Amino acid sequence: MQMGFGLYQQQTLKLVMTPELRQAITILQYSTVDLLDFLRQQVTENPILDLSEKNREFLVTDVTMQKETNKQADIDWKDYIRANATGDDTYYQRGSAPAQDYDPFNFISAGGTTLEEHLLEQVAMLKNVTPLEKRILNFLIGNLNESGYLTISEKEAADILNTNVEKIEEMIWLLQTLEPVGVGARSLAECLLLQLRDEPEEHTLAIAIVEHHLEDLAEKRYQKIAASLGVTPQEVQQAADYLRTMNPRPGAEFAQGTPRYIVPDVYVEKVENEYIVMVNEGSMPNLTINRFYQQMLQKNEADPAQRYIQDKLNSALWLIRSIEQRRMTLYKVTQAIVEEQKSFFEKGTAGLKPMTLRDIAEKVGLHESTISRATSNKYVQTPRGLFELKYFFTTGLNRADGGEASSVLTIKEKIKAMVDAEDKKKPLSDQKITDLLLKEGIEISRRTVAKYREELNIDSSSKRKRF
């Protein structure tokens, strides 16, 4: 066979990811808050687009009308442009949730006092403290972490401040006398001891446990601690219960965290005996086409800017279509989830059925990847609370009696209920829980029960035992 260079024609089929298609996929993944940020960015880049902060009316109020309206997935863009030209410049989202005057950001409380400010105020009120000692205290306060623990050693502090270690230790002791109790500790044990010694009553056993058996306490080796200290396991358990009332992070109450608000992307309301799905567009501004550029496009004379305006208009209309497609996809997917999980809305977690992305994809006629994008980072407000859409997708286990499979979340709820109702002096072992579930028709292995128990942060039966 002779090899060489040449020009050949060949036909191939391949999927080309256009910028418009990539934008539509990206918009589908956005949550309501992310979409709002994206739209504001697009307005700065495309002069054709305008965002108007107007309250919109809830156009669809009748249940039957809403069902018919949501079946319409296409928009007549020519009618849309004509409507804008006549002065109706508002782009309404059909089937969306009503606009509300409630703004969660109006309820953000002002930043409170920080741990550093709280301690510096106390230092300023101390008497018989030299300027050098105040300087050391201020330095130590600046080296506390959010939990209130000292993050610098005595030697490091002494080297930086050009003083002796004894002086640093003296100031650490003074720092530990300030509020909140336990601040300035260098370890968990020291933090607990500071709080125990500040109590009006002496807790000798609790102090001994913290000083010598803190690791055994964490592992709940009560019998080992009791044998070492010459007390009963019941006394050790009572001391452990008391130690749980201590605060291992005394500075946490002063932590300045940014509040994170979750805005539902979809609402599910129960009207009579039917569940109605509404996409949340109440917090979204109105997306409009700028009238000035519309009038320029209607001019007959040749204008060098016509081509630029036409390109920007096409981009704007594609953006509007992508937003509408996102709304319709989100509506269809949520509607299918509600239909599949109707028992959940009636009974709660106990009624949650196993469901996969493929089940919903087949129901709405979309690809699994589209369902995954539509439910990613999306939340739905239901009569039973706020849930992530991914929450409703769960695997299941077949029943031994051949009945309908039980979801993993349902099984976890059963395990938790069994543990809550058990005799604490004789807690249920994993094998016993396995046997009880089998009596209910749920065939599950002991290893799987142990896995679910650990995911629920439930200790083993030996650690749950009360003496």
Automatic annotation (TrEMBL):
* Annotated GO MF terms: DNA binding; DNA-binding transcription activator activity; nucleotidyltransferase activity; sigma factor activity
Provide one Gene Ontology cellular component: DNA-directed RNA polymerase complex
Q: Where is the RNA polymerase sigma factor 54 core-binding domain?
A: 109-293
Q: Does the keyword Nucleotidyltransferase apply?
A: yes
**One matching Pfam family, short form?**
Sigma54_DBD
UniProt keyword terms in alphabetical order: DNA-binding, DNA-directed RNA polymerase, Nucleotidyltransferase, Sigma factor, Transcription, Transcription regulation, Transferase
Per the database record, which ranges form the RNA polymerase sigma factor 54 DNA-binding domain? 307-466
Q: Name one GO biological process term.
A: DNA-templated transcription initiation
**InterPro entries, per the entry:** RNA_pol_sigma_54, RNA_pol_sigma_54_core-bd, RNA_pol_sigma_54_DNA-bd, RpoN_core-bd_sf
Q: Which family does it belong to?
A: Belongs to the sigma-54 factor family.
* Protein name per Swiss-Prot or TrEMBL: RNA polymerase sigma-54 factor
- Species name for this entry? Aneurinibacillus danicus
